Every structure is written in C-alpha cells, then in structure tokens.
Amino acid sequence: MVARRPVVVGNWKMNGLLASGLSLVQAIVRGWRDDSRLDRVDCIVCPPFPYLAEIARAAVGTRVAVGAQNQSAFAGGAHTGEVSAAMLRDVGCSWVIVGHSERRSLHGERDDQVADKARAALAAGLGVIACVGETLAEREAGETRQVIGRQLKPLLTVLSERPLAEMMVAYEPVWAIGTGRTATPEQAGEVHAAIRSMMLAAGVGSQAVRILYGGSVKPDSAGTLLALPDIDGALVGGASLDADDFLAIGRAALR
Prior knowledge:
Blueprint: E1 7-11, H1 18-34, E2 42-46, H2 52-59, E3 64-68, H3 85-90, E4 95-98, H4 101-107, H5 111-123, E5 127-132, H6 136-140, H7 144-161, E6 167-171, H8 185-201, E7 211-213, H9 219-226, E8 233-236, H10 243-252
Parallel strand pairs: 1-2, 1-8, 2-3, 3-4, 4-5, 5-6, 6-7, 7-8
Helix pairs in contact: 1-2, 1-10, 5-7, 7-8, 9-10
C-alpha cells in the first residue's frame, strides 16, 4: 500500500479583496507553522486571479502552496480574457483546479475540455486538482457511477500519458456544494472507492493518486469523512475563508 500524504485545498472562489486575502493567507501560514503536527498535511490555497502573485509572494518559503482556480487549455495566443498555465507558474502558482462543477455548469465546460486543461497544466509544470461529481438529479436516478466514470475517463487518459504527473482527483457531489449539505461518510466512501477502482481498471497508479472530498466541508464534518481509507483530503470552499475553520480541517486530515 502506498502512503498518501493528506492534503487540504482552499478554494476561495470569487471572494475577498487583496487586503483580506493577504490577512487570510498570513493567518493560515502562521497556523501551519505553529502546529508541528501539520507538517504531515499538505496545504494549498487558491485565491482569485488578480491576487495570485501577491498571495504567492506572501507564501514563499512557507508550508502553504498557492494554486489557481482555473486556466486555459491553450498555451498562448488570441484568447482574450484567458490565462495560461505558464502565466500561472510565472506568478508563483504550483497548482491549478480544473473541471470544478461551477465551471462545468455555469460555463459549459465539457469533459474533454477539462482533460485538455489538465494536460496543458501538467506540461507547464503545474500540479492538477481535477474535479468530478454528479448532480442531485443524477444521484437520484442512480447514475452517480456512470457520470463519474464519464468525467474521469479523459482524465485517466492524461494520467496514462504522464504516469508520474502530480494530479489529484476531487470528488465534489454537486448537490452538496454551497448548500450546507454534506454526503454521508457511506456515500462519500463508496464513490471514492469507485474512483480508485476505475483507476485500477484503467491501469493508472490507483494507490498513489490522492482523491479529495469537496462538498460543504466544515470542521464538524471533516473528521469523519477524512478518516475513510480512500479519502486523502478535502477541497474546501466557504470554510477556507476562515483561517480557524481551515486549520481545523487541516488537523482533521491527520492520520
């Protein structure tokens, strides 16, 4: 069995201004520095685009890494309003989220486009946090495994092309994002185990790839979820905007 380091990722979404973002990352940096137990947990924060460079500078030399919330599948050129993986690297990012459910639902991103973004990010030297997840209607129709398999398939192709690439998969049940609802441990554990079995069937390093849970993760629910064997960390939304809550989730990831 491969030992997988737990990880907690904060997706700040479109929240805050520069001053509040700097205060938040400084509090997280202090918290990770002052609690030696958190040496065993990776920490990534993903601020809005305009603040990435400043937040990355504030995190240099600390145990907190910085990622972006999205990026273009293109390396450069006439793509107004887009940001390339190389640009993200240039301002200090080491990670990027691709395929978040809000990108899929609000911006119509397809599974193949998400895989193209992952491929471009890895080629530029970024680690990738690739999101998959089903809607409430799909879950109630018994289509969860089918939907996850469809979303995961092109991402597994990317992993097979770059078997040593740093990619994490985040399972985010769409019905639990921003709703205050959280998948039960049984629901989350079942899907995480299914994702790992799909990786195994595809010949991808299923034991090495970290799989995160994302869906209204809060300090009071994190401990039970993160104790499950196939859940290696959390992709945290609203609770990542409060340093104390985020640090509490980080401690809940300790094994």
